Amino acid sequence: MSSNVVRISIVSDVVCPWCYVGIAQLQKAMSKVQQSHPSVSFDLRWQAFELNPDLDKASSTSAAPETVPVVSKVDYLAWKFGSIEVLEKTRKFLEQRAQAAGVQINGYGGVIGPTKLVHEALVYAGEKEKQTEFMLALFEAYFGRSENIFDMAGILKVSATVDRLDVAELREYISTRNGRKIVEDEIKKNRYVGGVPHYTIGKYEVHGGQDVDTFVKVLELAM
């Protein structure tokens, strides 16, 4: 029986909660499709998007990897959404959707910061075929445990939980900023999508957090 590889490109930012919910739904859909089509496999690739470019401008892209500035997540999001009241309504809906998808989002505790450095680390993980595992670990750390994942220390702490991802090698990669141009080019290219998550599944494009059945239909079309 020949193998059929469905290629999936995901435009995402690590601080996007709907991206976390979305990948959980997509993975459930992938499992369902593989149950009925055992020869199918999936090749996932992640591309960078900057959800809060103002945070990057405020910190300067030249900031050292060890000293990436962060701000209170709840204060920043309340400012972005207009008020604490609006943010609270969003939180309740989001947490319900996350729970239904099987992931944990613990409110708006902790901090938020620019994500370019995290995306650079994800480029490295992609070169090692560990990108999805690393992205999931980052989502869990940020949304589930309210960890600071924006500087060198935070990124390396999460990377240490990913099997066969070399922490020392990643430290060197981040220090030399080898992934900076790749990330900046991806962010520039992906501005057209307008928001995240955005999926390209084979030749089909899917925008936003979809349910499992929708993903199943698109995956089967892409086979």
From TrEMBL:
Residues 8-219 form the DSBA-like thioredoxin domain. PANTHER family: GLUTATHIONE S-TRANSFERASE KAPPA, THIOREDOXIN SUPERFAMILY PROTEIN. Pfam families: DSBA. One of its GO terms (molecular function) is oxidoreductase activity. This is DSBA-like thioredoxin domain-containing protein.
